[in-house]
């Protein structure tokens, strides 16, 4: 941990605890929106996991020659993103990249691949990327809420279609996480499609 400022570690810990509470509220709301018990998703996560990154994107004189982060979906359950006032997040919509301009004092919530699987494709994880700015630096702080490595992820039985078809097979989050990093930062859900 940085020693300057001395309060950095305490502030980050408080921020992480607050975001855990928000993540739990969001998972309850998502569960209920799917017609499931409000604690359904939470029960599937095992011991739960949370990771945070602090991203710094310096100004780039030729932003069209690089990406801050290439197009990808988040392999976690949900991502809670805090971004500064500099635009850089883009989502892929209707065949094109669209900027998600920052709104002061708000979070951007990304649905991740694990929600897509549990919802049996009723929710979709969004393809997004980060681009750099030619004039300004950008800071973003994503918090990833995820299952524990041994958690078994699969479609909720109540959401399997009338013909009994689950879109995805069951897998451990550890298996998913290994596949995601082995194949690079890209959507890897096809690996887990049901046969």
TrEMBL record:
InterPro entries membership: IPNS-like_FE2OG_OXY, IPNS-like_sf, Oxoglu/Fe-dep_dioxygenase_dom, Plant_2OG-oxidoreductases
Keyword set includes rRNA processing: no
Domain of life, per lineage: Eukaryota
Family annotation (PROSITE patterns): FE2OG_OXY
GO molecular function, one term: metal ion binding
Keyword Thylakoid attributed: no
Pfam families according to UniProt: 2OG-FeII_Oxy
Occurrences of domain Fe2OG dioxygenase (ranges): 48-147
Key words of the record: Iron, Metal-binding
The protein's name: Fe2OG dioxygenase domain-containing protein
Organism lineage: Eukaryota, Viridiplantae, Streptophyta, Embryophyta, Tracheophyta
């Amino acid at each position: 941990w940085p020693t300057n400022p001395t309060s950095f570690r305490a502030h980050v810990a408080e921020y992480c605890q607050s975001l855990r509470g928000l993540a739990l509220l969001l998972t309850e709301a998502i569960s209920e929106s799917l017609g499931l018990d409000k604690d359904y998703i939470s029960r599937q996560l095992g011991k739960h996991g949370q990771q945070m990154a602090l991203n710094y994107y310096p100004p780039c004189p030729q932003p069209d020659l690089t990406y801050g982060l290439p197009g990808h979906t988040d392999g976690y359950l949900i991502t809670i993103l805090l971004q500064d006032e500099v635009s850089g997040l883009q989502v892929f919509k209707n065949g094109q990249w669209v900027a998600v301009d920052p709104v002061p004092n708000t979070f951007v919530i990304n649905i991740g691949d694990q929600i897509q699987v549990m919802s049996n494709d009723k929710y979709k994880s969004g393809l997004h990327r980060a681009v750099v700015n030619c004039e300004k630096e950008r800071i973003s702080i994503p918090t990833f809420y995820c299952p524990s490595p041994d958690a078994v992820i699969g479609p909720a039985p109540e959401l399997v279609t009338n013909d009994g078809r689950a879109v995805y097979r069951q897998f451990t989050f550890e298996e998913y996480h290994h596949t995601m990093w082995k194949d690079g930062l890209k959507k890897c859900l096809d690996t887990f499609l049901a046969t």
